Amino acid sequence: MDFKKLATQYRTELIKNVLPFWQKYSQDLEYGGFFTCLLRDGQVFDTDKFIWLQARQVWTFSMLYNCLEQEPKWLVMAEYGANFLREYGQDTSGNWYFSLNQQGKPLVQPYNIFSDCFATMAFSQLYQATQNEEYAQIATSTFHNILERQNNPKGQYNKLVSGTRPLKNFALPMILSNLCLEIEVLLEKELVETTIQNFIHEVMEVFYQPENGLILENVTPEGHFSDSFEGRLLNPGHSIEAMWFMIDLGHRCKNQILIDKAVEITLSTLEFGWDQQYGGLFYFMDLKGYPPQQLEWDQKLWWVHLETLVALLKAYHLTSNEACCQWFKKVHDYTWSHFCDSEYGEWFGYLNRQGKILLPLKGGKWKGCFHVPRALFQCSQILETIASR
Hints:
Layout: H1 3-25, E1 37-39, E2 44-46, E3 49-50, H2 51-67, H3 72-88, E4 99-100, E5 106-108, H4 114-130, H5 133-149, E6 168-169, H6 171-182, H7 189-206, E7 208-209, E8 214-215, E9 218-219, E10 233-234, H8 236-252, H9 256-273, E11 285-286, E12 300-301, H10 302-319, H11 322-338, E13 350-351, E14 357-359, E15 361-363, H12 371-388
Antiparallel strand pairs: 1-2, 1-15, 3-4, 4-5, 6-9, 7-8, 10-11, 12-13, 13-14
Helix pairs in contact: 1-12, 2-3, 2-4, 3-4, 4-5, 4-6, 6-7, 6-8, 8-9, 8-10, 9-10, 10-11, 10-12
Protein backbone atom coordinates (compact mmCIF):
# COMPACT_ATOMS: atom_id res chain seq x y z
CA MET A 1 0.00 0.00 0.00
CA ASP A 2 1.37 3.41 -1.00
CA PHE A 3 0.82 5.38 2.19
CA LYS A 4 2.37 8.56 0.79
CA LYS A 5 0.04 8.56 -2.20
CA LEU A 6 -2.95 7.92 0.07
CA ALA A 7 -1.93 10.79 2.34
CA THR A 8 -1.93 13.12 -0.66
CA GLN A 9 -5.32 11.80 -1.76
CA TYR A 10 -6.91 12.52 1.62
CA ARG A 11 -5.34 15.96 2.01
CA THR A 12 -6.20 17.04 -1.53
CA GLU A 13 -9.81 16.00 -1.05
CA LEU A 14 -9.99 18.05 2.14
CA ILE A 15 -8.39 21.21 0.74
CA LYS A 16 -9.75 21.18 -2.81
CA ASN A 17 -13.19 19.56 -2.64
CA VAL A 18 -14.61 19.62 0.88
CA LEU A 19 -13.67 22.86 2.64
CA PRO A 20 -14.40 25.03 -0.44
CA PHE A 21 -17.93 23.59 -0.56
CA TRP A 22 -18.73 24.85 2.94
CA GLN A 23 -16.91 28.14 2.41
CA LYS A 24 -18.90 28.84 -0.76
CA TYR A 25 -22.39 27.72 0.24
CA SER A 26 -22.87 27.60 4.00
CA GLN A 27 -22.45 31.17 5.26
CA ASP A 28 -25.68 33.03 5.94
CA LEU A 29 -24.54 36.52 4.96
CA GLU A 30 -27.84 38.09 6.04
CA TYR A 31 -28.36 36.79 9.59
CA GLY A 32 -25.07 35.13 10.51
CA GLY A 33 -24.18 31.53 11.25
CA PHE A 34 -24.26 28.70 8.77
CA PHE A 35 -26.75 26.95 6.55
CA THR A 36 -26.35 23.18 6.82
CA CYS A 37 -29.33 21.95 4.79
CA LEU A 38 -27.63 21.87 1.41
CA LEU A 39 -28.43 19.91 -1.74
CA ARG A 40 -25.78 18.17 -3.80
CA ASP A 41 -24.86 21.39 -5.62
CA GLY A 42 -24.88 23.55 -2.49
CA GLN A 43 -28.39 24.97 -2.90
CA VAL A 44 -30.01 25.76 0.47
CA PHE A 45 -33.22 23.77 0.98
CA ASP A 46 -33.98 24.73 4.59
CA THR A 47 -32.81 27.66 6.70
CA ASP A 48 -33.18 26.25 10.25
CA LYS A 49 -29.95 26.26 12.23
CA PHE A 50 -28.99 23.35 14.46
CA ILE A 51 -26.71 24.33 17.29
CA TRP A 52 -24.54 21.24 17.28
CA LEU A 53 -23.89 21.63 13.54
CA GLN A 54 -23.13 25.33 13.94
CA ALA A 55 -20.66 24.46 16.69
CA ARG A 56 -19.15 21.56 14.76
CA GLN A 57 -18.39 23.87 11.83
CA VAL A 58 -16.77 26.43 14.15
CA TRP A 59 -14.69 23.62 15.63
CA THR A 60 -13.67 22.28 12.21
CA PHE A 61 -12.33 25.55 10.85
CA SER A 62 -10.69 26.44 14.19
CA MET A 63 -9.04 23.02 14.46
CA LEU A 64 -7.69 23.14 10.92
CA TYR A 65 -6.35 26.66 11.54
CA ASN A 66 -4.61 25.37 14.68
CA CYS A 67 -3.39 22.01 13.40
CA LEU A 68 -3.00 22.16 9.64
CA GLU A 69 -2.35 25.67 8.39
CA GLN A 70 -2.94 29.17 9.74
CA GLU A 71 -5.14 30.11 6.82
CA PRO A 72 -6.79 33.47 7.69
CA LYS A 73 -10.00 32.62 5.83
CA TRP A 74 -10.52 29.58 8.07
CA LEU A 75 -10.28 31.66 11.22
CA VAL A 76 -12.67 34.25 9.78
CA MET A 77 -15.13 31.42 9.04
CA ALA A 78 -14.84 30.06 12.57
CA GLU A 79 -15.39 33.44 14.23
CA TYR A 80 -18.34 34.15 11.94
CA GLY A 81 -20.13 31.08 13.30
CA ALA A 82 -19.02 31.74 16.87
CA ASN A 83 -20.52 35.23 16.83
CA PHE A 84 -23.92 33.80 15.90
CA LEU A 85 -23.65 31.14 18.63
CA ARG A 86 -22.67 33.71 21.27
CA GLU A 87 -25.63 35.91 20.43
CA TYR A 88 -28.40 33.33 20.06
CA GLY A 89 -27.26 29.86 21.12
CA GLN A 90 -27.99 29.66 24.88
CA ASP A 91 -30.97 29.98 27.16
CA THR A 92 -30.85 32.07 30.33
CA SER A 93 -29.40 29.13 32.32
CA GLY A 94 -26.48 28.69 29.93
CA ASN A 95 -27.84 25.54 28.24
CA TRP A 96 -27.48 25.40 24.47
CA TYR A 97 -30.64 25.13 22.38
CA PHE A 98 -31.05 22.30 19.90
CA SER A 99 -32.19 24.47 16.99
CA LEU A 100 -32.98 28.04 15.96
CA ASN A 101 -34.73 29.62 13.01
CA GLN A 102 -32.71 31.52 10.43
CA GLN A 103 -32.85 34.75 12.40
CA GLY A 104 -31.66 33.07 15.62
CA LYS A 105 -34.94 32.68 17.49
CA PRO A 106 -35.09 29.36 19.42
CA LEU A 107 -37.14 26.55 17.89
CA VAL A 108 -36.28 23.49 20.00
CA GLN A 109 -35.48 23.55 23.70
CA PRO A 110 -32.02 22.52 25.03
CA TYR A 111 -33.02 18.89 25.57
CA ASN A 112 -29.94 17.50 23.84
CA ILE A 113 -26.69 17.82 25.78
CA PHE A 114 -24.66 17.22 22.62
CA SER A 115 -25.27 20.83 21.61
CA ASP A 116 -23.34 21.73 24.78
CA CYS A 117 -20.59 19.21 24.02
CA PHE A 118 -19.91 20.61 20.57
CA ALA A 119 -20.14 24.19 21.79
CA THR A 120 -17.41 23.31 24.30
CA MET A 121 -15.24 21.87 21.55
CA ALA A 122 -15.86 24.85 19.28
CA PHE A 123 -14.98 27.57 21.76
CA SER A 124 -12.01 25.66 23.15
CA GLN A 125 -10.43 25.36 19.70
CA LEU A 126 -11.30 28.94 18.87
CA TYR A 127 -9.67 30.10 22.09
CA GLN A 128 -6.51 28.22 21.13
CA ALA A 129 -6.53 30.01 17.79
CA THR A 130 -7.18 33.51 19.14
CA GLN A 131 -6.35 33.53 22.87
CA ASN A 132 -9.65 35.37 23.37
CA GLU A 133 -10.54 34.82 27.03
CA GLU A 134 -14.25 35.13 26.36
CA TYR A 135 -14.07 31.98 24.24
CA ALA A 136 -12.24 30.18 27.06
CA GLN A 137 -14.91 31.21 29.55
CA ILE A 138 -17.72 29.93 27.32
CA ALA A 139 -15.94 26.60 26.82
CA THR A 140 -15.17 25.99 30.50
CA SER A 141 -18.55 27.07 31.85
CA THR A 142 -20.30 24.86 29.32
CA PHE A 143 -18.07 21.91 30.18
CA HIS A 144 -18.80 22.21 33.90
CA ASN A 145 -22.50 22.45 33.08
CA ILE A 146 -22.21 19.20 31.12
CA LEU A 147 -20.60 17.45 34.09
CA GLU A 148 -23.45 18.64 36.31
CA ARG A 149 -26.06 17.34 33.85
CA GLN A 150 -24.37 14.07 32.89
CA ASN A 151 -26.48 11.82 35.15
CA ASN A 152 -29.73 13.23 33.78
CA PRO A 153 -28.74 14.94 30.52
CA LYS A 154 -32.26 15.55 29.21
CA GLY A 155 -33.56 16.80 32.55
CA GLN A 156 -37.16 18.01 32.34
CA TYR A 157 -37.27 16.97 28.65
CA ASN A 158 -36.82 13.27 29.41
CA LYS A 159 -39.89 11.46 28.04
CA LEU A 160 -39.29 8.15 29.83
CA VAL A 161 -41.09 7.15 33.01
CA SER A 162 -38.45 6.83 35.70
CA GLY A 163 -37.85 3.60 37.56
CA THR A 164 -39.47 1.03 35.25
CA ARG A 165 -36.52 0.24 33.01
CA PRO A 166 -33.63 2.51 33.90
CA LEU A 167 -30.93 2.47 31.24
CA LYS A 168 -27.91 4.62 30.55
CA ASN A 169 -26.72 5.44 27.07
CA PHE A 170 -23.26 5.02 25.56
CA ALA A 171 -23.16 8.27 23.58
CA LEU A 172 -22.39 10.65 26.45
CA PRO A 173 -19.44 8.82 28.07
CA MET A 174 -18.14 8.17 24.57
CA ILE A 175 -18.07 11.83 23.59
CA LEU A 176 -16.91 13.03 27.00
CA SER A 177 -13.85 10.79 26.78
CA ASN A 178 -12.81 12.82 23.73
CA LEU A 179 -14.11 16.15 25.00
CA CYS A 180 -11.68 16.03 27.93
CA LEU A 181 -8.76 16.09 25.51
CA GLU A 182 -10.35 18.87 23.47
CA ILE A 183 -10.61 21.19 26.47
CA GLU A 184 -7.60 19.91 28.43
CA VAL A 185 -5.67 23.18 28.02
CA LEU A 186 -8.39 25.03 29.94
CA LEU A 187 -8.92 22.63 32.86
CA GLU A 188 -7.14 21.76 36.08
CA LYS A 189 -4.89 18.73 35.61
CA GLU A 190 -6.55 16.75 38.39
CA LEU A 191 -10.02 17.23 36.90
CA VAL A 192 -8.78 16.13 33.48
CA GLU A 193 -7.13 12.97 34.81
CA THR A 194 -10.09 11.98 36.99
CA THR A 195 -12.61 12.58 34.23
CA ILE A 196 -10.54 10.67 31.65
CA GLN A 197 -10.18 7.63 33.89
CA ASN A 198 -13.88 7.65 34.74
CA PHE A 199 -14.91 7.61 31.12
CA ILE A 200 -12.32 5.05 30.06
CA HIS A 201 -13.87 2.80 32.71
CA GLU A 202 -17.40 3.53 31.45
CA VAL A 203 -16.58 2.82 27.82
CA MET A 204 -14.25 -0.15 28.25
CA GLU A 205 -15.76 -1.89 31.27
CA VAL A 206 -19.41 -0.88 31.64
CA PHE A 207 -20.67 -0.80 28.04
CA TYR A 208 -18.20 -3.37 26.70
CA GLN A 209 -19.50 -6.94 26.84
CA PRO A 210 -16.51 -9.33 27.00
CA GLU A 211 -18.60 -12.41 26.23
CA ASN A 212 -19.20 -11.18 22.67
CA GLY A 213 -16.47 -8.55 22.29
CA LEU A 214 -18.93 -5.77 21.45
CA ILE A 215 -20.08 -2.42 22.83
CA LEU A 216 -23.77 -1.98 23.71
CA GLU A 217 -25.60 1.30 23.19
CA ASN A 218 -27.60 0.96 26.42
CA VAL A 219 -27.03 -0.91 29.69
CA THR A 220 -28.61 -0.91 33.13
CA PRO A 221 -27.25 1.58 35.68
CA GLU A 222 -25.16 -1.30 37.08
CA GLY A 223 -23.71 -2.02 33.64
CA HIS A 224 -25.72 -5.16 32.97
CA PHE A 225 -27.41 -6.36 29.78
CA SER A 226 -31.10 -5.54 29.31
CA ASP A 227 -32.94 -7.94 27.01
CA SER A 228 -35.04 -5.24 25.32
CA PHE A 229 -35.02 -3.25 22.08
CA GLU A 230 -32.75 -0.65 23.64
CA GLY A 231 -30.60 -3.16 25.52
CA ARG A 232 -29.86 -5.28 22.46
CA LEU A 233 -29.05 -2.26 20.29
CA LEU A 234 -25.64 -2.01 18.61
CA ASN A 235 -24.31 0.92 16.61
CA PRO A 236 -21.07 -0.22 14.91
CA GLY A 237 -20.09 3.32 13.95
CA HIS A 238 -20.44 4.60 17.50
CA SER A 239 -18.40 1.71 18.85
CA ILE A 240 -15.57 2.15 16.36
CA GLU A 241 -15.43 5.94 16.70
CA ALA A 242 -15.20 5.48 20.48
CA MET A 243 -12.30 3.08 19.98
CA TRP A 244 -10.18 5.71 18.26
CA PHE A 245 -10.91 7.98 21.21
CA MET A 246 -9.64 5.15 23.43
CA ILE A 247 -6.56 4.68 21.24
CA ASP A 248 -5.80 8.40 21.58
CA LEU A 249 -6.19 8.18 25.36
CA GLY A 250 -4.07 5.04 25.51
CA HIS A 251 -1.33 6.78 23.53
CA ARG A 252 -1.55 9.84 25.77
CA CYS A 253 -1.39 7.75 28.96
CA LYS A 254 1.23 5.33 27.54
CA ASN A 255 -1.23 2.49 28.17
CA GLN A 256 -0.57 -0.20 25.57
CA ILE A 257 -3.11 -2.52 27.20
CA LEU A 258 -5.86 0.02 26.54
CA ILE A 259 -4.69 0.48 22.94
CA ASP A 260 -4.62 -3.27 22.29
CA LYS A 261 -8.08 -3.74 23.78
CA ALA A 262 -9.48 -0.90 21.66
CA VAL A 263 -7.98 -2.46 18.52
CA GLU A 264 -9.47 -5.85 19.43
CA ILE A 265 -12.93 -4.31 19.88
CA THR A 266 -12.60 -2.43 16.58
CA LEU A 267 -11.86 -5.64 14.70
CA SER A 268 -14.64 -7.55 16.47
CA THR A 269 -17.13 -4.82 15.62
CA LEU A 270 -16.08 -4.82 11.97
CA GLU A 271 -16.52 -8.58 11.74
CA PHE A 272 -19.96 -8.35 13.32
CA GLY A 273 -21.17 -5.19 11.55
CA TRP A 274 -19.93 -5.63 7.97
CA ASP A 275 -22.61 -6.39 5.38
CA GLN A 276 -21.30 -9.56 3.76
CA GLN A 277 -23.78 -9.31 0.89
CA TYR A 278 -23.46 -5.70 -0.27
CA GLY A 279 -20.46 -4.36 1.61
CA GLY A 280 -20.31 -1.49 4.06
CA LEU A 281 -21.23 -1.28 7.72
CA PHE A 282 -24.78 -1.46 8.98
CA TYR A 283 -26.10 1.57 10.86
CA PHE A 284 -27.92 -0.30 13.65
CA MET A 285 -27.98 -3.96 14.65
CA ASP A 286 -29.63 -6.17 17.24
CA LEU A 287 -27.25 -8.18 19.41
CA LYS A 288 -29.38 -11.31 19.04
CA GLY A 289 -30.16 -10.81 15.38
CA TYR A 290 -33.77 -9.74 15.96
CA PRO A 291 -35.37 -7.00 13.82
CA PRO A 292 -34.03 -3.64 15.06
CA GLN A 293 -36.46 -0.96 16.16
CA GLN A 294 -34.73 1.61 13.90
CA LEU A 295 -36.22 1.37 10.41
CA GLU A 296 -33.02 2.88 8.95
CA TRP A 297 -30.96 0.03 10.40
CA ASP A 298 -29.57 -1.18 7.06
CA GLN A 299 -28.57 2.20 5.62
CA LYS A 300 -24.91 2.92 4.99
CA LEU A 301 -23.88 6.26 6.49
CA TRP A 302 -20.91 8.49 5.70
CA TRP A 303 -19.72 9.09 9.25
CA VAL A 304 -19.71 5.40 10.16
CA HIS A 305 -17.24 4.59 7.41
CA LEU A 306 -15.09 7.69 7.82
CA GLU A 307 -14.67 7.16 11.57
CA THR A 308 -13.77 3.54 10.86
CA LEU A 309 -10.98 4.67 8.53
CA VAL A 310 -9.59 6.90 11.28
CA ALA A 311 -9.77 4.11 13.87
CA LEU A 312 -8.06 1.57 11.62
CA LEU A 313 -5.19 3.90 10.73
CA LYS A 314 -4.60 4.86 14.37
CA ALA A 315 -4.69 1.17 15.29
CA TYR A 316 -2.28 0.18 12.55
CA HIS A 317 0.08 3.05 13.32
CA LEU A 318 0.40 2.10 16.99
CA THR A 319 0.28 -1.71 16.76
CA SER A 320 1.37 -2.67 13.20
CA ASN A 321 -1.53 -5.16 13.26
CA GLU A 322 -1.86 -6.34 9.65
CA ALA A 323 -5.57 -7.06 10.10
CA CYS A 324 -6.07 -3.32 10.58
CA CYS A 325 -4.23 -2.57 7.36
CA GLN A 326 -6.30 -5.12 5.42
CA TRP A 327 -9.56 -3.78 6.83
CA PHE A 328 -8.46 -0.22 6.07
CA LYS A 329 -8.04 -1.06 2.39
CA LYS A 330 -11.46 -2.75 2.31
CA VAL A 331 -13.26 0.14 4.03
CA HIS A 332 -11.28 2.75 2.05
CA ASP A 333 -12.31 1.20 -1.27
CA TYR A 334 -15.98 1.06 -0.26
CA THR A 335 -16.04 4.58 1.20
CA TRP A 336 -14.33 6.40 -1.66
CA SER A 337 -16.32 4.59 -4.33
CA HIS A 338 -19.71 5.26 -2.71
CA PHE A 339 -19.71 8.54 -0.73
CA CYS A 340 -17.24 10.85 -2.48
CA ASP A 341 -18.69 13.35 -4.97
CA SER A 342 -15.92 14.45 -7.32
CA GLU A 343 -18.30 16.60 -9.41
CA TYR A 344 -19.74 19.01 -6.82
CA GLY A 345 -17.48 18.52 -3.79
CA GLU A 346 -18.23 17.30 -0.26
CA TRP A 347 -19.63 13.79 0.26
CA PHE A 348 -22.98 12.09 0.16
CA GLY A 349 -24.28 11.03 3.54
CA TYR A 350 -26.93 8.37 3.12
CA LEU A 351 -26.95 5.22 1.01
CA ASN A 352 -29.40 2.34 0.95
CA ARG A 353 -28.20 -1.13 1.81
CA GLN A 354 -27.18 -1.82 -1.77
CA GLY A 355 -24.95 1.28 -1.78
CA LYS A 356 -27.13 3.52 -3.94
CA ILE A 357 -27.57 7.18 -2.98
CA LEU A 358 -30.66 7.47 -0.81
CA LEU A 359 -30.68 11.25 -0.26
CA PRO A 360 -28.87 13.61 -2.66
CA LEU A 361 -27.99 16.07 0.09
CA LYS A 362 -24.63 17.26 1.37
CA GLY A 363 -25.95 18.55 4.68
CA GLY A 364 -29.12 18.49 6.73
CA LYS A 365 -30.35 18.23 10.29
CA TRP A 366 -27.67 15.69 11.24
CA LYS A 367 -24.95 16.06 8.61
CA GLY A 368 -22.78 19.15 8.56
CA CYS A 369 -19.18 20.28 8.25
CA PHE A 370 -17.54 17.86 10.66
CA HIS A 371 -17.08 14.13 10.04
CA VAL A 372 -15.81 14.41 6.47
CA PRO A 373 -13.17 17.12 7.03
CA ARG A 374 -12.14 15.73 10.44
CA ALA A 375 -11.61 12.24 9.03
CA LEU A 376 -9.80 13.46 5.91
CA PHE A 377 -7.47 15.54 8.07
CA GLN A 378 -6.82 12.76 10.59
CA CYS A 379 -6.25 10.14 7.92
CA SER A 380 -3.89 12.34 5.91
CA GLN A 381 -1.81 13.09 9.03
CA ILE A 382 -1.57 9.45 10.13
CA LEU A 383 -0.80 8.26 6.59
CA GLU A 384 2.03 10.80 6.39
CA THR A 385 3.44 9.50 9.68
CA ILE A 386 3.21 5.88 8.58
CA ALA A 387 4.81 6.73 5.21
CA SER A 388 7.68 8.55 6.87
CA ARG A 389 8.65 5.54 8.95
